[in-house]
Amino acid sequence: MSMHDKHGPNEPGHNEHGGPDREKIDASPGYEPSDVGVTGIVVFLTALFIFVAVAGVLCYGIGKVINARMNKEDGPNSKWTKTVDVRQLGNMPSSPELQNKMAEITQAFPTPRIQTDDGNQDVADLHAREDLLLSNYTWADESKGTVRIPIDRAMELIAQRGLPVAPAVTTQAPMAGDSTPTVDMPLTNGFARTAFEQEEAAQEETTKTEQAAQK
Prior knowledge:
The protein is mainly α. The chain is built from five helices and two strands. It has a two-stranded antiparallel sheet with strand order 1-2. The longest helix is centred in the first third of the chain and has 37 residues, at 38-74. The radius of gyration is 47 Å and the shape is elongated. 0% of the residues are buried.
């Protein structure tokens, strides 16, 4: 017989279902009457304090090492390198001359610069510069006396004189399996107005028409 069988169902230590009696908890106060275990809280706070102290010491040491390295490379602080408290200067009044100077510096900043739009204006300016070269006489090399002529005049001269004939090039007969390469004429000459330029041109044409109608 086991030791559990020595007690009857009605003996102390057993309930009516045959299991051990559980400690009855008095819930009449409405709160937990037992004390809170402060050991875990004390251990956590102590560990947290030690961690903060160690981290502070490490940060201070790293800062000292970085400052020592900077002083070694840049030299010690002097009256030219000391920190100035700008709060003592107060609010400085704006200077129009300084603002204009800053605007000039910004405009003269070397390329490539950040575009102020989606690039349509830059392409239009590029085509405008090309139109100036194509429609006017400009110096190609002033020291040699060579000039660029307008494209319309160049086309007239080519129509009158014709293109220079290139000397005949001697070519060998293609080998077995080879074929003579051919060059197809391109669809365009590589220059086309953008939609932005076409819209501007149409707007200018509409404005001219309206001004002529008003007159």
